[in-house]
Amino acid sequence: MAVTEINFDGIIGPSHNYAGLSLGNLASANNAGAPSFPRRAALEGIAKMRANIALGLRQGIFLPQRRPDHPWLASLGTDMASAEPHMRAAAFSASSMWAANAATVSPATDTGDGRCHLTVANLVTMPHRSHEWPQTLAQLRVAFRSDRFAVHAPVPAPFGDEGAANHMRLCDTHAAPGVEIFVYGRAGGAFPARQHVEASKAVARIHGLDLARTLFVEQSEEAIAAGAFHNDVVAVANERVLFAHERAFAHKHSFFTDLRRLLPSVEIVEVPDSAVSLSDAIKSYLFNAQLVTLPDGAGMALIVPTEAQATPAVWQWLETLLTGNGPIRQVIPVDVRQSMANGGGPACLRLRVVADPLDIDERFLVTDAKLDGIAAVIADHWPEKIAPADLSDAHLIAKVEQSWLTLVDHLQLSRDLCVEAETD
Ligand code: SUG
């Protein structure tokens, strides 16, 4: 089998809820306190994966994390019964569904030792995400345990690292050497800049990248202030195409000059502010799209959330895009509304890995038939509805824990993820 791009989607966990935990993420703030529908959320995620498989793309999965995170609360001297509500919500969050924040990935062609490198993100800026990394690391070490990969622990605090959401790779084809671009924030006005430049530089060094082919680019302060808490809310790249909002970057001209020098074939599809305002871009998540290369030379498709269809300026712009002769040949809306209401679009839900599927633990790769089995577990076990006040309900907690164990067992991953040892 050949090296290809595989999208690993985070399965949406049974504790999915709206607790308003992410300062600077407008959807999270606006939906705080609303009831969530975990079963529907997870099935939306499965439907997105199925649609991508139908396009001929390779698909992988990551498991949700074990919630509530009792060891984390214990390390803070508390537990679910006595923790304050915001800490209880942080321990209960299903935020690992946004796999774009799991790690930064550099394919083998870009690295000094010819292995594909993955560095788990520390996510230290948001307390509810800061305790994801140990379970993410454990999972990646199982999925990518072949010596074709190097899986690294996170860079240390205080340098915030949010993984692939702030990383882009441009190349002639996925299997060819790429130019890796790390986007960091310096200031975001009232909102935190979640990606620290020192974390980006550390990841590039750890991966053994050729620094002459690596760019460190500042995200514009106005984008962060407008609610683009990650670069992937205002830009996305695939092979030789960069699709970005006009106001995504602080120093656009020098960035584009460097990029054209390093990859002369690059095509920059820029959306002007006059056509789509930053506010419409962030509301619709136009750029939180999966930009994918279709098989058999069919060009690229942009997989957008249905919210993009519902935002007139955005949809009009996309219709015009398709009438041109550019590289993006199809726009495909997908319904991931439960995730979107927490600020996670189609691109947030996936981590891209360019590798040979034969080198990956097959339990993390899915087909339609395998998704049938996972969907059945979700339909039978995931809670239908959660209101934030339910997070202290012992019955709900027990149901969430049991649902997770059932899925891990179904995927035959209990032993590798040390579940038996902990539950015995
Ligand atoms: O980190 N939302 C996530 C959304 C992450 C989106 N990922 C990318 N753009 N790649 C975040 O802000 C909200 C959880 C809550 O409020 O309950 C949350 O964590």
Please tell me about this protein's structure.
The protein contains 16 helices and 16 strands. It is an alpha/beta fold and 424 residues long. It has one domain: 5-stranded Propeller (L-arginine/glycine Amidinotransferase, Chain A), CATH 3.75.10. The strands form 5 sheets. A 4-stranded mixed β-sheet has the order 15-1-2-16. α7 links the parallel β7 and β8. α2 (38-54) packs antiparallel against α14 (368-381). It is globular, with a radius of gyration of 20 Å. Residues 18-22, 25, 28, 93, 95, 98, 100-101, 126, 129, 165, 229-230, 232-233, 342-344, 348 line the site of N~2~-(3-carboxypropanoyl)-L-arginine.
| Share of residues in strands | 15-25%
What CATH calls the topology is L-arginine/glycine Amidinotransferase, Chain A
Report the C-alpha radius of gyration, rounded: 20 Å
- Separation of the first and last Cα atoms: 40 Å
- Overall structural class, as computed from helix and strand content, comes to alpha/beta
* Largest β sheet strand count, sense and barrel closure: 4 strands, mixed
Summed up, the helix count is 16
What strand order characterises the main sheet?
15-1-2-16
Number of domains: 1
At CATH level 2, the architecture is 5-stranded Propeller
- The averaged pLDDT comes out at 96
The small-molecule ligands in this entry are: N~2~-(3-carboxypropanoyl)-L-arginine
